[in-house]
């Protein structure tokens, strides 16, 4: 531990360049994704990623609530990101705070740009993200879960959307920050990508890095997203392989 003022700051990289959980700089935390976990939703997914546990449920296209949000020429995409009171160390006050509202807004906008919203005028596509356990990167885990849930619901979209936070810790660019790295690192940069086109649909940054570091961080994030993308596709394959009807025998 080092100390800054009265605060004890953990050493984020050891002499070998390993992180506090033993990972290398370009390594993701363990990630598991399951599609179709909730019976009442049109589509759903569960993501466990390091110490994050996130559920996504999707409905639609369906009637818009509240009605005045209805758009004559396209579907509205309404995301509600919610962090459970018991998901963090210090009990979070229940309900939508400013942080949840901001995250809900950026995720809604990210998905509006990948869903074929013009095909479904006067409807709503509703995405619920519930964070049950949090350890940094929950907005990205939410995006990963929501895009699998949207595919599970059969809602047409350009591509699945993988997401990950890259950042700077101990002077180095690192993939997929955990809580201590997010808290005590120099920068945190969550991003979400449309792999097919290479288009970024969510990009935020807290902290500081140089232009050169930013380029390296984006490259590393894109590579991380490719890895996550494979796991998203695998989750959907597993879901539909299990549910596929047995092939019927063809009579000679
Ligand atoms: O979760 P994400 O990295 O997308 O968002 P953040 O605002 O950078 O939050 C980083 C982490 O701080 C969260 O994942 C939680 O682990 C923690 N946090 C918390 O303990 N209490 C809050 N009210 C908000 C966040």
List the helices and strands and how they pair.
Blueprint: E1 2-4, E2 7-9, E3 31-35, E4 43-49, E5 52-62, E6 76-83, H1 98-112, E7 124-133, H2 138-152, E8 163-169, E9 172-175, H3 179-184, E10 187-194, E11 199-203, E12 206-207, H4 211-243
Parallel strand pairs: 6-7
Antiparallel strand pairs: 1-2, 3-4, 4-5, 5-7, 8-9, 8-10, 10-11, 10-12
The structure holds cytidine-5'-diphosphate.
Please characterize this protein's 3D structure.
With 252 residues, the chain is an alpha+beta fold. The chain has four helices and twelve strands, in the order ββββββαβαββαβββα. It has helices at residues 98-112, 138-152, 179-184, 211-243; strands spanning 2-4, 7-9, 31-35, 43-49, 52-62, 76-83, 124-133, 163-169, 172-175, 187-194, 199-203, 206-207. α2 (138-152) runs parallel beside α4 (211-243). The longest helix has 33 residues, at 211-243. The protein is globular. Mean pLDDT is 94; it is low at 1-5. The structure holds cytidine-5'-diphosphate (CDP). Cytidine-5'-diphosphate binds at residues 88-89, 92, 99, 134-139, 165, 179, 182, 188, 190.
């Amino acid at each position: 531990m080092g100390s800054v003022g009265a605060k004890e700051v953990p050493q984020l990289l050891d002499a070998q360049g390993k992180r506090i959980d033993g990972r290398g700089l370009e390594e993701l935390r363990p990630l598991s994704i399951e599609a179709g976990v909730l019976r009442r939703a049109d589509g759903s997914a569960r993501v466990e990623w390091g110490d994050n546990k996130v559920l996504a449920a999707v409905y639609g296209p369906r009637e818009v609530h509240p009605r005045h949000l209805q758009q004559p020429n396209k579907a509205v995409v309404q995301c509600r990101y919610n962090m459970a009171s018991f998901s963090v160390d210090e009990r979070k006050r229940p309900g939508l705070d400013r942080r949840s509202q901001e995250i809900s807004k950026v995720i809604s906008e990210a998905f509006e740009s990948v869903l074929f919203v013009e095909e479904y005028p006067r409807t709503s596509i509703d995405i619920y993200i519930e964070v049950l356990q949090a350890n940094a990167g929950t907005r990205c885990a939410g995006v990963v879960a929501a895009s699998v849930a949207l595919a599970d619901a059969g809602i047409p979209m350009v591509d699945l959307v993988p997401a990950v936070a890259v950042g700077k810790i101990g002077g180095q660019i690192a993939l997929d920050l955990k809580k201590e790295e997010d808290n005590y690192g120099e920068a945190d940069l969550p991003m979400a990508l449309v792999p097919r086109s290479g288009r970024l649909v969510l990009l935020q940054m807290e902290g500081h890095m140089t232009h050169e570091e930013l380029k390296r961080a984006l490259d590393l994030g894109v590579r991380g997203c490719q890895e996550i993308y494979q796991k998203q596709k695998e989750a959907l394959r597993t879901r539909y392989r299990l549910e596929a009807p047995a092939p019927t025998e063809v009579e000679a």
